[in-house]
Amino acid sequence: MIAEIGHFALVLALAVACVQAVVPLVGAERGERAWMDLAGPAAVAQLVLVGIAFAALTHAYVTSDFSLLNVAQNSHTDKPMLYKVSGVWGNHEGSLLLWITILALFGAAVTAFGGNLPPTLKARALAVQALITVGFLAFILFTSNPFERLDPPPMNGSGLNPLLQDPGLAFHPPFLYLGYVGFSMAFSFAIAALIEGKVDAAWARWVRPWTLAAWVFLTLGIALGSWWAYYELGWGGWWYWDPVENASFMPWLAGTALLHSAVVVEKRDALKSWTILLAIVTFGLSLLGTFLVRSGVITSVHAFASDPTRGVFILMLLVVAIGGSFMLYAVRAPALKTGGLFAPISREGALLLNNVLMATGAGTVLLGTLYPLFADALSLGKVSVGPPFFNSVFVPLMVPMVLAMGMGPLVSWKRGDLAGALARVKLAMAAALAAAIATWVMQGGSAGPWWAAGGIGLAVWLLLGTLTEIAERVRLFRAPLGDSMRRAANLPRAAWGMTLAHGGLAVLIAGMTASSAWKAESVQTMTIGETVTVAGYAFTLKAVRDVDGPNYLATEGTFEVAKDGKVFALVTPEKRTYRQPPRPTTEAAIVGTFLGDVYAVIGDAVPEGGWVTRLYFNPLVPWMWVGCLIMVAGGLVSLSDRRHRIGAPTRARAAAAQAAKA
Amino acid sequence: MRRLLLILACLTAFAGPAIAADPSEMLKDPALESRAQHLGKELRCLVCQSESIEDSNADLARDLRVIVRERIQSGESDDQVMQYVVDRYGDYVLLRPPFKASTLVLWVGPFALLLAGLAAAAAFYRRRTNAAPPPPPLSAEEKRRLEALLKDHPPS
């Protein structure tokens, strides 16, 4: 019964979305206030209805209602409660329902926080948002109904892929989707602005916080996914350039570019049509990511099911959404008035350079991800595009990006002075060079990879460049300390946000470089009492025992890890075999230190006696996670900026300004 | 049917999450083993989704790992080993696609994109400067008023 209520709520939500997609749009065109005002309550009603559906499915999972096909296929009574709940979105239908729930959440958020939006813009944005909802609700109802019944119901379910039975799954998809779907706000506002034919600083000030919020969520989602892969796949890799990872990375790159170009719109009233295009492209890439993962074009652990009708449906959705927006853009964008001027060497110029490089990066990842599909379709032969390609093309493209990033914030607005900015980063430049040379010497010259020194140098350059900028702003060491403190306190939060985000990237780059360059590993068969030393850490296999988990059996090894003769940690990696579905997983044991992760994995028993073990030292890996968290913190701090909280100038004030001008 | 087999093979590949290369297949000489791993990272596990043979647990990946190691041990150079594998499995096995007509767009594309982006930015600046000619010099009247203003309110 509860499942039917959920199903019915989804159908009702589709009806509401249809109304919300049409009435406010027409109302805005005709200037009918009552029609426009329908958008708000409709968005809230949608959230309630979709929320009911989501709760109904969650109820079915929690109570293990195997009369639902979806639950029977993806759950099991033995599964711990956390995975029963997170299992709701650990499958195709459920993850789509999560997508729609988050979409409804954002729509309702516009209603809640959009009190001072111009009414026509708000009505149009919510109508566009509803159009997306219509597409996805139709998709879920017609091709992927999570409430499909099964008769007769089986005694028990088939269980969830053990790889997904991990706390990481509970959080990785929701954050990723909050990011993906969050970009729909920028998209809806961009389409609304195109319909209105007006983009101004107030528009940018509206779009920025939403984009920033989406960016924060997506950053967190990607980092969580990477972290999950790092500890779950059992060999210490953290990024595979897998098409599914790329699918989340492309919107991140485009979204980052969008964040930066929106600054130029807000400050200089320029780059308007480019920013609108970026907003469309960013959400388009989010949709494409959903398509790639959901259609089964790409098989991986993420593609829970592949069904050609679903693929065709979502491809149509993609074509209509993206094609329609581009067409509207082509018609309306040329009419957007160009705004303020700025020189190539200026803060705006630096932001534009960021945009060129970020867009190229996103384009490269897109090309590499889709090329095998194109080559196949055009009968150019089967091509594989893997990590070696991306590492040798994408990474070099990001080098000028980081170089420019180190001093971009030091160039002044409108017309900058390159020589002056260069003079101010002399120290950072010298330190970066020194760090690169020191790295080269410490790794024993060509004994390590040649690019490691460059990576560390870039990280130091970016960190010091960023710190130089903030130090200048508070006049550190130039003014009395108390004065600097006061300036620091008075700086807008957005400035601190930028410093944190850029600094976090520097820490991340150091972590990525070190862990790729100097990973130490040792694979062998070990017997009880045997000791193997990796990067100065002596691992002694103390014991191996069988462990009976809630829904798995595990072989658990106990290693004593010693450094310089002193016992440093006792770790217990596991190799689990799940009962339903019967599949093994590895649970690596990881001890994080400042300089890196001590990482141990136990494998199968060997007939001659002993167990296969894989022992690693992964240098600076914790820095990557800390770097990502700093970036996220930067986004949050920036989001708390007063300007964002207040949003666009209120209508009353804008009207007053208009009157004053007249 | 072939498709189904592929999918099944992938599923079994996921069954053993990437505990590839077990110690028995590894070469005794660490220098040769490191060469083998280096080459293995460039080779695709043919039945998996973008996994290299070093990272995959599929049987086919294991066979390829063994082939690579046998070839290296028999004294072949890296290029010879790669050529041997490509001759048997085609370009599809290479995770870094070779540069040729069919991959021209892939390899040149990113740099063409970058150039196009930079050119568009340059055109943007040129258009903006042309579109906004420098303001005409001040007329005598304006100069007089400016001086008067400056005299009354000297810039601080």
List keywords for this structure.
heterodimer; A: 662 residues; alpha+beta; six-stranded antiparallel sheet; four-stranded antiparallel sheet; 22 helices; globular; B: mainly alpha; Helicase, Ruva Protein, domain 3
Decide which structural class fits the backbone of chain A: alpha+beta
Terminal CA distance of chain B? 84 Å
| Total domain units of chain B | 2
Average of per-residue pLDDT values of chain A: 87
Query: How many β strands of chain A by DSSP?
Result: 10
Instruction: Please state the structural category of chain B.
Output: mainly alpha
Q: Given the C-alpha coordinates, what overall shape of chain A results?
A: globular
- Biggest interface found: A-B, 57 and 48 residues
- The parts of chain A where pLDDT drops under 50 for at least 5 residues are 300-305, 647-662
* Strand-residue proportion of chain B: under 5%
The CATH topology of the largest domain in chain B turns out to be Helicase, Ruva Protein, domain 3
Please, what is the average pLDDT of chain B? 78
How many strand units of chain B? 0
- As residue ranges, the low-confidence spans of chain B are 1-19
For CATH, the homologous superfamily of the largest domain in chain B is named as Cytochrome C biogenesis protein
